[in-house]
Amino acid sequence: MRSSSAFFVLVAMLGHPHSFTTNAFLAKPRQRPSGSTSLFYESQGYNNGGDSFDDVERARKQLEGIFSESDSANKSGTDNNNDNNNDKAIPVKKLIALLTNPANNDKLESMLPPPPPLTSAERDRRMMELKLLEQLASCDDATRELLDLWAAEKGLEALERLEQAEEFLTAGQVIASEQMLLRLIDEFGVYHWVEPLNRLASVYFTQGRFQESYQLCLAVLKFKPWHVGTLEIIVEVAMRLGDRDKAREWATRGLPKLISSTSFPPFAETGPANPQRAVWVHEAIQKAQEALSHLEYQTKRDFFGNPEARYDGEAYGGSRMKQEKTKKNAAEQSNNNKEETESDIIATKTSLMKSFNAAEDDEESEDFGDAWQ
Prior knowledge:
The protein is mainly alpha-helical. Helix content is 67%, strand content 0%. It is elongated, with a radius of gyration of 34 Å. InterPro entries: TPR-like_helical_dom_sf.
């Protein structure tokens, strides 16, 4: 009932040409995020000019570059398509073409290169995201905090460029906005920062490129299924495409109201908690935890699973340790064999002595019998 009513509300809203806004896509982060994320931003240098936050991002880029170079060196001589181990290996225009092609919806993961390594800074952001998702069960403020977090994931410099793209779009400079977002996607990829992709979907919507906008929404939700902003907008994009079934389906996946009330305005601000909200939050947290665990596994497997050849030589003790371990195992096996051989010899001697003693007893018995006769 909730989803059906919500659908008709959306239909009514779309009847007004100015009812659609891109706020869910282009929500501008506050200068000082409130609540729990304030601590996160302050710990990253958000309020002192962002120097330390940008330092972290520069270090992250260097680290990912080192890993990518190492991975390329280790895989030289193999398939040239696997030389770079991140999504930036694909030219940005080709990447967008892949993402906006409906034929690739079910095979997107196999077409993209593996993700870059999960850094400690990225993991911290994921943990903060989990905390904010948990807060959604009891308050709506966490929605704003999540949008702020996602916009600023790559530091203040990247955030300013993202906001500049928004300003271009607001001023009607759509091409300039699109080009700036494409540069951000080309620089940062899509695995650990989906917000430029999210904003590009808004640009395409503004241009009337609804199918491409819809496909980019799908891509964002592929990487971040709990993105509350995209879950709202994709409903309206589907409506503009004339696909009411899809619009109704996506409406059921959106974030439910916090308070149980009717699905028609005006909505109640007080009342009993909506049980569907708790279910949605639980599923979102589970998906986010699974995504984080998968990234941790991929990082360990692809970047830390096997020792690199240049660190496995005798100069670093690698081969020497293996040789010593092999010698130790061989010595232990030799000692075990020696002990088994000595035990066999003792057992054989004991058996022979018993046989010899038994033979002597038989001879003495025969001699005694002859003498008796």
